[in-house]
Write a structure and sequence with these properties.
Layout (H helix, E strand, L loop, with lengths): L4 H5 L11 E5 L9 H18 L3 E4 L13 H11 L4 E8 L5 H14 L4 E6 L6 H8 L4 H6 L1 H13 L18 H4 L12 E5 L2 H10 L3 E3 L8 H11 L11 E9 L3 H19 L9 H6 L4 H11 L3 E3 L1 H15 L3 E5 L5 H14 L7
Parallel strand pairs: 1-2, 1-9, 2-3, 3-4, 4-5, 5-6, 6-7, 7-8, 7-9
Helix pairs in contact: 2-3, 2-15, 3-4, 4-7, 9-10, 11-13, 14-15
Length: 366
């Protein structure tokens, strides 16, 4: 790992933000919209985030979900790299058990070659989908085995990225290209950068592993809020300094949606919550419109789920969202807040990031 690894991990807070702000994009597809529309919105959000001082922009791997167009993070990141120039781009995350470690090392080595010093490799151990789809992805029904093997898969991936399998290892003569082997080839010159690895989690497993290995940690507060503080505490308690980091660094994913008035925010998050109701009950689809959500007849159980879900979505006017984010950061001690705006329309999501940037006085384009 390069000597400046920590500098590539740690961000800088701008304006009045208490910590660096970043973006997590699920590339959501709303009813009446196409995947092309969602991907164009992703480019617009990435450009806005870059121009306003957000630190990084990540996309998450999901499968078999009509309303989420981010099944191929590496492909999307290559597209984003061509449309941005400074912002860090990464996966939030790639689901490691779904892929051979060598394939991930090659994909992210290629991305690093495209955008040197700007690529993050966030890794998760969940499938990012249902069990049947995970089995199709992995061509195996031994799903628990994949999750249990996560530390071994992580070690293998790291060795491919660093090209440092020991003598006698069956992979000693296998090299991830682009990668460090190019620097040791006759006449070779290799970039000093290597994508920093982040571990993602929604419970204590990855928190403990990230701490033990001295890696940065990203926690999914946006769908596992009850576990946020315990997981961050565990990460900090188990952290061991490494050549990557000399102190813990943890970001949390946060659902946050700012609109010009509070009523509109409530309409938008209701639609996003209906989308989650359908997903959790085996009926995944496109993100519904606010009008569809308002007309939907929620059962008592569904209403209870919606209320619980939206209690962890920071939404409202820009000032209300800023206050909510500030309070959350104080409560968790997070080193970075990664915001995800879930709404039917791309224009609403784009506007949300703009309003939050304004609320914190983030830099404006020259």
């Amino acid at each position: 790992m390069a000597a400046d690894a920590a500098e590539e991990i740690r961000g800088t807070a701008h304006g009045t933000a208490p910590v660096p702000l970043s973006v997590l994009d699920l590339v959501t597809v709303g009813a009446g919209r196409t995947a092309s529309d969602a991907l164009r919105t992703g480019v617009d959000i990435a450009r806005l985030a870059e121009s306003r001082g957000f630190h990084r922009y990540w996309v998450a791997e999901h499968h078999s979900m009509p309303g989420v167009a981010s099944s191929s993070p590496a492909v999307i990141l290559a597209h984003l790299a061509a449309h941005t120039g400074r912002i860090r781009l990464g996966s939030g995350g790639v689901m490691l058990p779904n892929h051979a470690p060598l394939v991930i090392a090659e994909q992210f080595g290629t991305l690093e070659a495209m955008a040197p010093g700007r690529i993050d490799l966030g890794l998760g151990r969940a499938p990012g989908t249902d069990g049947a789809t995970a089995a199709a992805l992995r061509r195996s029904d031994r799903l628990n085995e994949g999750a249990d093997d996560f530390p071994q898969q992580l070690a293998e991936l790291t060795r491919f990225l660093d090209d440092d399998f020991p003598d006698g290892h069956p992979y000693r003569r296998i090299h991830a290209v682009p990668g460090p082997v190019q620097a040791t080839s006759p006449g070779g010159v290799q970039s000093p950068h290597r994508p920093p690895i982040w571990l993602l989690g929604s419970s204590g497993f990855s928190a403990r592993l990230a701490g033990t290995l001295g890696l940065p940690f990203a926690f999914a507060h946006h769908f596992s809020a009850q576990n946020t503080v315990p997981a961050l505490d565990l990460y900090r308690e188990t952290f061991r300094p490494s050549e990557v980091l000399d102190a813990p660094y943890a970001l949390i994913g946060v659902s946050a949606l700012a609109t010009d008035d509070e009523k509109e925010a409530r309409r938008q998050v209701l639609a996003a919550a209906l989308n989650m109701v359908r997903l959790r009950t085996g009926r995944p689809g496109l993100v519904p419109t606010p009008e569809e959500a308002e007309a939907y007849d929620f059962s008592p159980m569904e209403r209870e789920f919606v209320d619980s879900w939206n209690a962890n979505v920071i939404h409202g006017t820009p000032d209300e969202v800023r206050t909510g984010l500030d309070d959350l950061q104080k409560r968790t001690g997070a080193d970075e807040l990664m915001l995800t705006a879930n709404a039917h329309g791309g224009d609403v999501r784009l506007r949300s990031y703009e309003l939050i940037a304004d609320a914190y006085g983030l830099p404006t384009p020259a």
